[in-house]
Amino acid sequence: MSVRKTENLLDAVIGKAVSLVDNTWDDAIRDAALSCLLDYVGVTLAGSAFLKKRHETFLDKVGPCDGSYPIIGMHRTADAYTAALLNGLSSHVLELDDGHRYGMLHPGAPIITGLLSSSRIDPLDSEHFLKAIAAGYEAMITLGRMIQPEHKKRGFHATATCGSFGVAIAISILRRYPPKRLRSAASAALTASGGLLAMGDGESQLKPYNCAQAVVSGITAANIALCEYGSPVDAIGEKRGFILSFNGGLDSCCIEDALRDGCYILGVFKKVYASCRHIHPAIEAALAIRSEPDFDLKAIASIVIETYDLAISGHDHSVAGNASSAKMSIPLSVSIALCTGESGIEAFRDDVLQSQQVRMLASKVKVVENKDLSLLVPKKRSAIVTVNLASLSIAKRVDYPKGEPENPLAPEELRCKFIDLLGYAGRSCQEAEKLFENVSSLEANMSEFLKGIE
């Protein structure tokens, strides 16, 4: 539904982010920001290990990229933009970074990458750093809620299109920009917005680049604002602004809901399965079926997966030539879970993807829309998996997969995820535990934390 805009939406979103850190800030929000930082560090260090050869190729072929900004996990430094680009890739490549169900985006990967890429020119006070994280999340998720689900239906990747905005706001808060400069940074970020969901289709491995370019654009926007350029009145809501350009209309319900609700960092989900979040309900249901005493992998005749409409487009292919494509596939992710009982990074190894057993099982999967489940989105993003055996059928439904606010990771589960990811990154258990403690007690160990992620 298109409506006439009656308020300055850019000022409203900025006002929400500023108010969060100036007026609403409390221990719960602080703890949520710290938890997001912990999750980011583990995911990005593991992502850097996964991309090590490609990062080295980039540095060797594109150089010189001299500078003092750390490339996370590489024990190398580069100029700010190169470090931001490579760290942005690392943060999103494993499909394990945090996200928000209503915004349909991943805030931590671009926002925290952008903030860490400001660490060499901005003295970092730990409390203010966490406030900047929360402010970036608030701005990015608010913008995402204003435009979803229409934005996704049009083929845009909100992690990218809203990510540059979130990064610019977060850095502006970190640097304590005055209002006019903050608006300039936000506006510059909005005009740099872009990112296509097609980057995750077929055999493409460019989806993480959507996140990386959002980081670079957000940093550039925050930097150009230092030159005191004037900005438009409302780059979000005016006639030639962000929403009308990307979505074709202003939806009053989406906008009102986005501005009414708040403290969005408290509603972030954290992943335990290394695949697209839309697939997680089906994976979790499959793992539950696998644990049933009557389950017999060899007796599977067919599998029917009912889910919501937005989860199907781009995710119903049953053949994939690489891990990136497999992580976007409901049939393959579910088949791997049923065959191996695994769904983490190692579950998508080449030998698993090439397994005849996995391929045969994926060919037996049918993914269909359940209109009742579609109506529940975004309050619930559900899946019903039915495995038909020779003599019986086993069905499981999942509404809130592990990691959602309604089914959160316990502190010990978050710690185990962190330790496991650092093990994948080649860190010893002792090194992982030390870094976990440094992040957990950030106010006393900010410098040690920064050294630990290099």
UniProtKB/TrEMBL annotation:
Span of domain MmgE/PrpD N-terminal: 25-248
UniProt protein name: MmgE/PrpD family protein
Family under the similarity heading: Belongs to the PrpD family.
MmgE/PrpD C-terminal domain: residues covered: 273-437
Species name: Eggerthella guodeyinii
One Pfam family here: MmgE_PrpD_N
Recorded GO MF terms: lyase activity
Top-level taxon of origin: Bacteria
